[in-house]
From TrEMBL:
Keywords, in A-Z order: CBS domain
Keyword Oxidoreductase on entry: no
Name under which the protein is recorded: CBS domain protein
Signal peptide: none
Provenance organism: Kordia periserrulae
Taxonomy, superkingdom: Bacteria
Domain CBS: 11-69, 86-139
UniProt-listed InterPro entries: CBS_dom (IPR000644), CBS_dom_sf (IPR046342), Diverse_CBS-Domain (IPR051257)
Pfam families to which the protein is assigned, alphabetical: CBS
PANTHER family, sorted: CBS DOMAIN-CONTAINING PROTEIN, CBS DOMAIN-CONTAINING PROTEIN CBSX3, MITOCHONDRIAL
């Protein structure tokens, strides 16, 4: 295993993003259609936050036992904006950050994805899944 391998070798570069003005229903559709768990929220080229599928699950706590689940989620989603639900205090890395350094950040924090930002522009996303796949490739 190479110790100085940069995250650019394993990060996802075809990043699906949300605009900070999108709604939560759009976010849910993107999560489900692309089978992903984290979406960077942007305004132009600037990253504003990160929305996780867990963030959506956290707010759709409404008891849907006697109602149509989809209509309850729509009501709940209309109560919040993406900016209210997303994580705002992001830790990011650049594409030259080593995989080891990124893994240490993820191991110490309570999130599972890091935006990769070069010169203020989002260029990728590194997830715990990317790291696990990299480790599996080593064996």
């Amino acid at each position: 295993m190479k110790k100085r391998t940069p995250v650019s070798t394993i990060m996802t570069t075809n990043v699906i993003t949300l605009n900070h003005t999108d709604n939560l229903e759009t976010a849910e559709r993107l999560f489900k259609a692309n089978n992903i768990r984290h979406i960077p929220v942007v305004s132009g080229d600037e990253i504003k936050g990160m929305l996780s599928y867990t963030d959506l699950l956290r707010i759709s706590f409404a008891d849907a036992a006697f109602e149509d689940e989809e209509s309850v989620e729509t009501i709940v989603y209309n109560m919040f904006t993406i900016e209210q639900v997303m994580a705002k205090n992001l830790v990011s890395v650049n594409s030259y950050t080593t995989i080891k350094e990124a893994a240490e950040i993820l191991a110490q924090k309570e999130f599972h994805a890091l935006p990769v930002v070069d010169d203020g522009k989002l260029v990728g996303i590194l997830t715990t899944t990317d790291l696990i796949n990299y480790l599996l490739d080593q064996f």
